[in-house]
Specification:
The protein is an alpha/beta fold. It has one domain: Rossmann fold (3-Layer(aba) Sandwich), CATH 3.40.50. Strands 1, 2, 3, 4, 5 and 6 form a six-stranded parallel β-sheet that branches. The radius of gyration is 17 Å and the shape is globular. The site of flavin mononucleotide has 16 residues, from loops.
């Protein structure tokens, strides 16, 4: 019997009022509809990692921090990853970058994709993530980026829709506000 690959859907924003759950739940539904993989949510909120303070990457020196070791064990159990990526100042969140740094061997030779979102669509964060993935010896697929059209503190009623097979967008049903000086 062929084993299905075990895929982690990693939620990369941890802030209390995060928007991340909307794209994460949408992505989870799409992934669970497939029969060729098993997908599980891995929420960085459940992994309270300290800022990286090890002697070196665990490529060179085994990590000492118990949360870092637990994180590495979690990542080691998966065959591939779907990152849910918020764009913060044109990159991934600090929490996600730290989590990526806290493992090395466990990421190696595994494929990843991502769903990215942000006020301007998350494309810059995605490209940073792909560069990080190369350094971690991962293989990137061509991931989608979605635009949330405005920031989440402006509208708490975001929904994710599938507008066509090729384009998937998040939109806010409430009227969009304008920036004023
Ligand atoms: C510190 C910070 C920086 C941000 N920088 C960008 C940015 O560079 N580009 C962008 O498109 N959106 C940016 N945003 C908007 C976020 O992508 C948006 O608020 C998103 O909902 C954040 O994800 P989260 O709610 O899941 O944490 C920024 C938000 C924050 C809080």
């Amino acid at each position: 019997m062929t084993m299905k690959p075990r895929i982690a859907l990693i939620i990369g924003s941890t802030r209390p009022t995060r928007f991340a759950d909307k794209p994460a739940q949408w992505m989870l539904k799409q992934a669970q509809a497939r029969e060729d993989m098993d997908v599980e949510v891995v929420d960085l909120r459940d992994h309270p990692l300290p800022f990286f303070a090890e002697m070196a990457s665990n490529l060179h020196v085994p990590s000492k921090d118990s949360e870092a070791i637990r994180w590495q064990e979690t990542i080691a159990g998966f065959d591939g990853f779907i990152f849910v990526v918020a764009e913060y100042n044109h990159s991934v969140t600090g929490a996600l970058k730290n989590a990526l740094d806290q493992a090395y061997r466990e990421w190696n030779r595994k494929p990843f994709t991502a769903i990215a979102y942000g006020g301007a669509g998350g494309a810059c964060a995605l490209e940073h993530l792909r560069g990080i993935g190369v350094e971690l010896q991962m293989v990137s697929t061509r991931p989608p980026s979605i635009s949330v059209a405005a920031t989440s503190w402006q509208c708490s009623r975001w929904v994710v829709t599938s507008q066509s097979r090729r384009s998937r967008r998040v939109f806010c049903p409430a009227p969009r506000r304008r920036w004023t000086i």
